[in-house]
Design brief:
The structure holds two protein chains of two kinds. Chain A has seven helices and five strands. Chain A is α+β, with helices and mostly antiparallel strands. In chain A, strands 2-3-1-4-5 form a five-stranded mixed sheet, with helices on one face. Chain B is of the alpha/beta class. Chain B has three domains: about 210 residues, NADH-ubiquinone oxidoreductase 51kDa subunit (Rossmann fold); about 90 residues, Ubiquitin-like (UB roll); about 90 residues, NADH-ubiquinone oxidoreductase 51kDa subunit, iron-sulphur binding domain (de novo design (two linked rop proteins)), CATH 1.20.1440. In chain B, helix 2 packs parallel to helix 6. The chains are: A alpha+beta, B alpha/beta.
Chain lengths: ~160, ~450
């Protein structure tokens, strides 16, 4: 697979750089772009982002590994994030995490064999008023029960 | 548009739409500010008694006055919307239902301090809310209320640009100096203070960092006047606060109420009480890093910083977490310790090592493998983290552990063995041991 942004995307990268007093600041939005395009940040992707951003690979990797939301390995098509922090834990988040884990049959921070799902036990997502919550990719689902979670996962197969 | 206590979240439908916001008097407070000198605007905010809503409760007007005068260097404003403190979900409500009030607050703050560019830093998990905020900023540019068109729209010569920046999942970015490093494109390690951001902040330039709710409170202050605002709520901590209530209550959610509201009033009236009418065992008053209160000491407690301080805790982010009588507090404390261990940036040894150590000890207690001496060890580790790190994450990790162990020591002790026992006698060690009490055969 050729790792390269399209001309349009490169144009967008330049626009992002111009938003900040120093172009280095655009690294986070550019890493987001790269993750959206390639699904995760492989060594090759990080090398490429470094060349686009005119930054050393070590710096790109340093930033990418600092944040939990940049994937450093392939994740599933549907990334299931279950919050087990205090507010969710008090309302059954831990049990939901265990049940989802058993249902998907994969470990925390890994994908199912067919790559359809991946699972992550996340820290507080800022949806405490709707606890327990899960997020699938970028969408929050609040006030969930195991039945609702199962129905959601059924709809995604 | 503003009647207390609905100042930050007025009860108007579709306020997130710029036309609705303007039809209800939106962006008029910036006009009002333009009629004053920047120093007069700062004085109004000082007089209002507004204190930062991000957790530290620093007086906002005073913070603004630290910014150097003059325009020989670019100055920046960073809006902290990282909102990662467990139990906090209030800023999200502003992005969703009243983003233009935040933008108007940025214009006023920017004018008062001579800011040329503002950055709204929003946590990465808030994908949808980042988009909502970006949409509001785009609308504001299209209407000419932000950016170079401001001079035509409002008159005057002042302009400001706003950039929405999305994080990528790191609790530490809510710490102001870490947020600056993150924004600059570095690993988000907190910086030493001094130099303080007002002297040397983003890209080495004077910078002010304010919480989302703080800035969104500025337009109503100008609308109703400093004196009227200062008359709302508790005298030492004025105004209204967005309380995010979660855990064991019937109606969790965000409630905008006057400061100094009774905690029991929030729980039993606004939030409909505890499910099953159970008793309350513990309450965290302001996000997971704040020491807890026991259920039997909440009567008469008022929710403002000056009232909470004598009780050994703080208002923090006003994220109230309620735990009923059946809650396993050892597990709660373990979960909190796990969170801080996970989120420690790793820069300072006491926090990096200490948070992991606390988690291990709590794990032992939870699994029934600990002795009562471990409780003292836990407090000792916590005490050695507190105050010994660059940023406040160390304190944030130590306080809840200390708080829970001190306030519920009996519950922790009940899970501990009186002394260590080994499954089999370690003969070699046993012969050498001088502290014979350590080794007991089972």
């Amino acid at each position: 697979m050729m790792i390269e942004f399209t001309a349009d995307e490169l144009h967008h990268v330049e626009a992002l750089k111009a938003k900040y007093p120093d172009s280095k600041a655009a690294i986070m939005p550019v890493l987001w772009m790269a993750q959206k395009k390639w699904g995760w940040l492989s060594e090759d992707v990080m090398q490429y982002v470094g060349s686009v951003m005119n930054l050393p690979y070590a710096h790109v990797k340093g930033v990418a590994t600092f944040y939990t939301m940049y994937f450093k390995k392939p994740m599933g098509k549907h990334h299931v994030q279950v919050c087990t922090n205090v507010s969710c834990m008090l309302r059954g988040g831990t049990e939901i995490f265990q049940a989802v884990k058993e249902r998907l049959g994969c470990e925390n921070n890994s994908a199912t064999a067919d790559g359809t799902f991946s699972l992550e036990e996340v820290e507080c997502m800022g949806a405490c008023g709707g606890a327990p919550m899960i997020a699938i990719n970028e969408t929050f689902h609040e006030n969930v029960t195991m039945e609702k979670v199962n129905a959601l996962l059924d709809s995604l197969r | 548009m503003y009647t207390s206590p609905h100042l930050v979240l007025p009860r108007i439908d579709n306020l997130a739409d710029i036309d609705v916001y303007m039809a209800n008097g939106g962006y008029q407070q910036y006009r009002k500010a333009l009629g004053m000198t920047p120093d007069e605007v700062i004085d109004v905010v000082k007089k209002s008694g507004l204190r930062g809503r991000g957790g530290a409760c620093f007086p906002t007007g005073l913070k603004w006055s630290f910014m150097p005068k003059g325009n020989d260097k670019p100055k920046y404003l960073a809006i902290n919307g990282d909102e990662s403190e467990p139990g906090s979900f209030k800023d999200r409500q502003i992005f969703e239902s009243n983003p233009h009030q935040l933008i108007e607050g940025i214009l006023i703050a920017g004018y008062a301090m001579g800011i040329e560019k503002a950055f709204i830093y929003i946590r990465g998990e808030y994908h949808a809310w980042v988009d909502m905020m970006q949409r509001a900023v785009d609308q504001a540019y299209a209407k000419g209320v932000v950016g170079s068109a401001m001079t035509q729209t409002f008159g005057g010569s002042y302009t400001i640009d706003i950039v929405v920046h999305k994080g990528a999942g790191a609790y530490i970015c809510g710490e102001e100096t870490s947020l600056m490093n993150s924004l600059e494109g570095d690993r988000a390690y907190p910086r030493y203070k001094p130099p303080f951001p007002a002297n040397k902040g983003l890209w080495g330039m004077p910078t002010t960092i304010n919480n989302v709710e703080t800035i969104a409170t500025v337009p109503p202050i100008l609308a109703i006047g400093a004196d009227a605002y200062a008359a709302i709520g508790a005298p030492g901590h004025t105004g209204t606060i967005l309380f995010g209530v979660s855990g064991h209550v019937n109606k969790p959610g965000v409630y905008e109420l006057e400061t100094g509201t009774l905690l029991t009033d929030i729980i039993y009236n606004h939030c409909g009480g505890v499910p099953g009418n159970k008793r309350i065992k513990a309450i965290i008053p302001g996000g997971s890093s704040m020491p807890p209160l026991r259920g039997d000491e909440i009567d008469g407690v008022r929710m403002d910083e000056e009232s909470l301080k004598p009780l050994g805790t703080h208002i923090g982010t006003a994220g109230i977490m309620v735990m009923d009588e059946d809650t396993d507090l050892v597990k709660v404390t373990l979960r909190i310790a796990h969170f801080y261990h996970h989120e420690s940036c790793g820069q300072c040894t006491p926090c990096r090592e200490g948070c992991g150590w606390m988690e291990k000890i709590l794990h032992r207690i939870d699994h029934g493998d600990a002795t009562v001496q471990d409780l003292d060890l836990l407090l000792s580790v916590a005490g050695n983290i507190e105050g010994n790190t660059i940023c406040a994450l160390g304190d944030a990790a130590a306080w809840p552990v200390q708080g829970f162990v001190r306030k519920f020591r009996d519950e922790f002790e009940a899970r501990c063995k009186p002394s260590r026992s080994f499954l089999s006698l370690n003969v070699v060690h046993g012969r050498r041991a001088t502290a014979s009490t350590l080794v007991q055969s089972t």
